[in-house]
Specification:
The structure is a single chain. With 80 residues, the chain is mostly helical. It is built from four helices and no strands. Helix 2 crosses helix 4.
Length: 80
């Protein structure tokens, strides 16, 4: 069982058999579906995913995009 957000993010991505580029596509699509038009491109999001999966800070904005991409509620996001 993951004990932190970074491990949880990686585990969730891998459970869906998504590569980082696919996760980036999913996050961009989730952001656009929520009206976020200020997202970085694929390279920037891939870099962020790499950083977040290694313990970098994750903003509330991207938590919401991850929830949309994973099809979960915010209350189900990461371990408590």
């Amino acid at each position: 069982m993951p004990t932190d957000v970074s491990s949880w993010l990686r585990e969730q991505r891998e459970a869906r058999s998504w590569t980082r580029p696919e996760m980036a596509r999913q996050l961009i699509a989730a952001g656009r579906a929520r009206g976020d038009r200020q997202l970085p491109g694929m390279d920037g999001i891939c870099h962020n995913i790499y950083r977040w999966e290694r313990g970098g800070p994750l903003s509330e904005r991207y938590k919401l995009h991850y929830c949309h991409a994973f099809g979960i509620q915010l209350t189900q996001f990461a371990p408590s």
